[in-house]
């Protein structure tokens, strides 16, 4: 198993309308498992991976409408994730940071502190070079702003186009993604100004955080694909009252102190993807017969299949498959009487290319058949 497994990426997620999902049951939670992710648009929320008293790990879902959290369990109906990244048991990769050697300046951004810790530990030979570092952190905040995803995957692409239409560099969609989500504030006292657009939650200021520091954020694997945006951090208050995406660079987020910091050098990375395929195309007794297979590692929703005869797209038939588990296959028989002569039949899975698949895996999305009706 790879040190880090990524089901879709942050880049995939912010493009919107993600149809690929990883079920909760596919995520190992034995031992020290780091991870974060986003729940489906129907559920709404963020995922935070926390260690429990038994030494294993739990996934907590942060709820959009009030910032509260619940622990997910297999079979509870909320376990299909359009974006999630996670490690295996990373206990052997734990590299605790000696905080006395780490200079924590007042008002210093948490990303800068973690970046300094990584450099310092590497220079001391206490931390291996890695493309991505896992992070566990116990922190006390003077003030904290969090976001919780709300319908992040519904129509996001359309909204992103609106954001990016006037942008010179095309990155405004990515940098604005969190502005569109529900914001909450944690602070010792409620804000004095009335009508504050950031909802005040309470004074739960100690947080258990889990996340990743990507040395190449432009790849958009676990952080927003933007130069210098290395850190993606989720967390829950230690009283288990609230949770969400930690807006570490928000002007109203102020770190008090880091109480524990552990780094994990993640060397190997596996990206899970979808792989739709058409198989066993046949024509017999007025029936076009074929099967659709999900040969990838992710469950897929709303799979479209087009059946086209003699390249006449105006007469094509279209099937919609609501859900296909990874490894599943379904067979279809479509009545279509063909007159005598030569005919071509084409069956295409996901003809609009709405499902995220690597380009080199799309060749099997289509199958063609020549038939001669006498």
The CATH architecture name of the largest domain reads: 2-Layer Sandwich
What portion of the residues fall into strands of 2 or more residues? 35-45%
On the 0-100 scale, what is the average pLDDT? 88
Give the SSE string.
EHEEEEEEEEHEHHEEEEEEEEEEEEEE
Fold-level CATH name of the largest domain:
60s Ribosomal Protein L30, Chain: A
Helix/sheet category: mainly beta
- C-alpha termini separation: 55 Å
CATH H level, superfamily name of the largest domain: Hypothetical protein, similar to alpha- acetolactate decarboxylase, domain 2
Compute the gyration radius: what is it?
24 Å
Number of helices: 4
Shape: elongated
CATH C-level class of the largest domain is: Alpha Beta
Short structural summary:
This protein has 374 residues and is mostly beta strands. It has 4 helices and 24 strands. The chain is elongated, with a radius of gyration of 24 Å.
Structural features, described:
With 374 residues, the protein is mostly beta strands. The chain folds into 2 domains: 4-271, 60s Ribosomal Protein L30, Chain: A; 273-373, Sandwich (Immunoglobulin-like). It contains 4 helices and 24 strands. The strands form 4 sheets. Strands 9, 10, 11, 12, 13, 14, 15 and 16 form an 8-stranded mixed sheet that branches. Strand 3 and strand 4 (46-51) form a beta hairpin. It is elongated and about 85 Å long. It starts with a strand and ends with a strand. Mean pLDDT is 88; it is low at 153-175.
């Amino acid at each position: 198993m790879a040190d880090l497994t990524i089901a879709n990426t942050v880049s995939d997620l912010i493009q919107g309308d993600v149809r690929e999902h990883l079920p909760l049951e596919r995520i190992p939670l034995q031992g020290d498992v780091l991870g974060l992710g986003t729940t489906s648009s129907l559920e709404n929320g963020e995922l935070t991976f926390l260690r429990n008293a038994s030494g294993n790990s739990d996934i907590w879902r942060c709820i959009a409408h009030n910032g509260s959290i619940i622990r997910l369990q297999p079979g509870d109906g909320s376990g299909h994730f359009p974006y999630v990244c996670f490690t295996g048991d990373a206990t052997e990769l734990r590299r605790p940071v000696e905080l006395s050697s780490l200079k924590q300046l007042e008002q210093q951004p948490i990303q800068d502190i973690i970046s300094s810790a990584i450099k310092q530990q590497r220079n001391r030979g206490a931390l291996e070079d890695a493309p991505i570092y896992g992070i566990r952190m116990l922190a006390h905040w003077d003030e904290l702003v969090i976001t919780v995803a709300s319908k992040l995957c519904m129509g996001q692409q359309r909204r992103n186009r609106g954001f990016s239409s006037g942008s010179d560099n095309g990155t405004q969609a990515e940098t604005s993604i969190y502005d569109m989500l529900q914001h909450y504030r944690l602070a010792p006292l409620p804000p004095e100004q009335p009508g504050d657009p950031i909802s005040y939650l309470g004074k739960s200021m100690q947080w258990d955080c889990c996340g990743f520091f990507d040395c190449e954020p432009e790849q958009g694997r676990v952080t927003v694909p933007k130069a210098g945006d290395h850190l993606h951090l989720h967390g829950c208050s230690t009283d288990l009252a609230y949770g969400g995406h930690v807006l570490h660079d928000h002007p109203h987020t102020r770190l008090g102190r880091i109480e524990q910091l552990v780094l994990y050098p993640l060397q190997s990375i596996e990206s899970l993807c979808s792989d739709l395929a058409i198989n066993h195309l046949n024509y017999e007794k007025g029936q076009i017969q074929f099967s659709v297979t999900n040969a990838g590692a992710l469950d897929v929703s709303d799979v479209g299949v087009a059946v086209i005869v003699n390249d006449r797209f105006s007469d094509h038939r279209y099937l919609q498959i609501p859900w296909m588990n990874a490894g599943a296959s379904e067979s279809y028989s479509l009545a279509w009487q063909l007159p005598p002569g030569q005919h071509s039949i084409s069956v295409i899975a996901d003809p609009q290319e709405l499902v995220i698949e690597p380009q080199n895996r799309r060749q099997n999305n289509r199958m063609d058949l020549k038939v001669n009706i006498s």
